[in-house]
Amino acid sequence: MSILIRALAIAAVAMTAAPAWAAPPAPTAEEARLAGLDREAAIALIGKLKAAQDGLRGDGKLYFGLLSGAPAAYPQAKLAPRDVFLKADFDRPFEISKPASDNPLWVPYKITLLPEGPGRIVCDVEVVLGINGQIERVTLYYHAPHPF
Fold it and tell me: Are 88 and 111 in contact (CB under 8 A)?
């Protein structure tokens, strides 16, 4: 009987401490959920963000607005927006959408990142492209996951 109880206790602990490999991987830009844009536009948007990250890591002479935020207790609230942007992993967006906009000079996009996997912290990224398709502004906001 004690062996059965011990086995059940071990199984319960194992189920509550799911290893990182047990979580399904986040989708790639090709697999992300899309709303209001096609797959090619989503891939191009992610490419622009990754190029901007590479540019800031290089000579750093890029000129676009960069904002970030998080609840005060989150580690992202302690970092400068540039550092938060450089740490963001745009390789695996969960969702990419293009909200409706009546301003042809500023085209907004919204990207949802799950940096720690599903059910954990969420990063909402707003990207605004200018009339020539260049990045004008990137806003990153980290928050708790939705309760559903």
Answer: no
Write out the DSSP string of 58-105: TT-----EEEEE--TTSGGGGS-HHHHHHH--TTSEEEEE----S-TT
For the segment 39-69, what is each residue's pLDDT rounded down to a tens digit? 999 999 999 999 999 999 988 789 999 999 9
Torsion of CA 91, 137, 63, 33, to 10 degrees: 20
Q: Give the per-residue pLDDT at 32.
A: 77
pLDDT-based confidence at 104, cuts 50/70/90? confident
Spatial contact of 123 and 142, defined as CB atoms under 8 Å apart: yes
- Residues 113, 98, 140, 56, CA torsion sign: positive
> Taking the mean position of all CA atoms in its chain, how far away is CA 104?
25
